[in-house]
Amino acid sequence: MPLLGGFLADAYFGRFSTVLISTTVYLLGLLLLTMSRVVPSLKPCDSDLCHEPRKVHEAIFFLAIYLISIGTGGHKPSLESFGADQFDDDHPSEKKKKMSFFNWWNFGLCCGLLLGVTLIVYVQDRISWAMADLILTLVMASSLVIFIAGRPFYRYRKATGSPLTPMLQVLVAAIRKRNLHLPSNPSHLHEIPKSETSQRRLLCHTKKLKFLDKAAILDDKQYSIEQQQNPWKLASVTKVEELKLVINTIPIWLTTIPFGICVAQAATFFIKQGVTLNRKIVHNFEIPPASIFALAAFGMIISVTIYEKILVPVLRRATGNERGISILQRIGIGMIFSVSTMIVAALVERKRLNIVHKNPLEGSASMSVFWLAPQFLIIGIGDGFTLVGLQEYFYDQVPDSMRSLGIALYLSVIGAANFISSLLITIVDHITEKGGKSWFGKDLNSSRLDYFYWLLATITAVNLCVYVFVARNYSYKNVHGRKTIAVADCDDREAVA
Q1: Which residue, 158, 146, 139, 18, is CA-closest to 77?
Q2: Are residues 254 and 351 in the same domain?
């Protein structure tokens, strides 16, 4: 859904309108969800025991869930990209603030997550789901009012039409001119004069994917104004470079999926481990299983704060890089934490299983849930590097005309990783079952999750090596400076740096 929402925001509606529409849809979904628990005729059944739920309840409930899904699809990519749009890339001080934006965005997001998995989950467990849904509905309604109140102060970017059409045009033009020879000097390639472009930033020519450069060749038949205006026959260097940017993101997208698979375990198997452990803190107060996830949010808050306030200033002085370290380096550091998470998780699960084998009747109830704290904290710290880095990467390194779609690509990493995680579990279950005993039994005590965690640690470590190779050969987006006039004036070494 975010891929569709991000596309519509960039191409047709604009980011502000998309946020407004999607938040309204989201709010409507929450209202229906609340009504399905509050309105007597829409409740699952009249009594506490439900032998067969009402059909009307099922219809309203699933309609609410799908509305929330659709609302999320427009809200997530558009709101974050709209927030980043408030900073001017051509203004040095604002550009530096934009680098901090994604850190503080995730800081706020994790503060909300902390309240969600503690306060809301507690209300769901101890009071009622209806009360929790009502709180969530009021929070979303308040956020919509606050968002609309800021309308006079926002900066807006107009929707420029489908960002995919120009890329298709470049591909078609390059295929048409496949037999032409590239000029030795890139300044002979076609580019729009800077005086004729207002919104679009011009990109520097790069030497990779040279076949696409043929789309910008001015041959003898294209010197007429009419032919130059046909985008299916002639593309500018900037349009060619925008297609290159999108193609260059594919290897990064693919090599970050194993990290997403590790993240998926935190919300699934890690929580299931917590159910089997001793969750009592004081007297009879017991932590709800889902609230254990707060440790991951806490780890991310710590990571983002230390990175923004301590590491970035120190690294800026040490490396001379205005970001402190490059975006891809930041993502890579988080991947190292994901490998560590799986190793720690495997060791903790092995300890839990040893306790179960020694005392089968009591199981692991004598083991404190805080044994899971290290793996939650480490994956949270890794999120502070990789997830924030991915948001910044997919916003910054895609064409300016598809930044909402860029954030949607980041979200699709997590979505695809969840599907692949489920597929991997199915495959491992099938293979190990043939070997005698499946790693995934009827319950965790008859399973070997520690083996599965070691497998994920191995996959992620091997993938990290591939990622390092891809990242070292990656060329960052290189935008023309204000005084740059010709294509040849761009320096590829600056892009590599």
Answers
A1: 18
A2: yes
Gap between the Cα atoms of 268 and 289, Å rounded: 11
pTM score, two decimals?
0.84
* Residues near 337 by beta carbon (within 8 Å), at least 6 away in sequence: 378, 379, 381, 382, 385, 386
Distance CA 315, CA 327 (A): 13
Owner of token pair 């470049």: 170
Picking from 304, 273, 482, the residue whose alpha carbon sits closest to that of residue 369 is: 273
Quick one: tokens of 43?
């409740």
In 10 A of CB 109, how many CB atoms?
A: 17
Arithmetic mean of pLDDT over the chain = 85
Identify the domain containing residue 130 by its residue range.
1-161
Nearest to 23 by CA among 152, 146, 131, 154: 146
Cβ count within 10 A of residue 366: 11
Q: What is the helix, strand, coil percentage profile of the chain, to 5?
A: 70, 0, 25
Dig out the tokens for 181 from the structure: 């020879």
pLDDT at 24: 94
Percent of the chain past pLDDT 70, that is, above it, reads 92
Residue with tokens 């496949």: 178
Under the banding of pLDDT at 50, 70 and 90, the label for residue 452 is very high
First and final C-alpha spacing in the chain: 35
Q: Which residue, of 93, 126, 161, is where some domain finishes?
A: 161
Mean pLDDT lowest among 93-102, 194-203, 395-404, 443-452: 194-203
Same domain, 391 and 421: yes
CATH number at residue 151: 1.20.1250.20
Q: How far apart are CA 410 and CA 105, in angstroms?
A: 15
Band the pLDDT of 382: cuts 50, 70, 90. Answer: very high
Please list the residues that pair with 278 across neighbouring strands.
368
Q: What is the DSSP letter of 118?
A: I
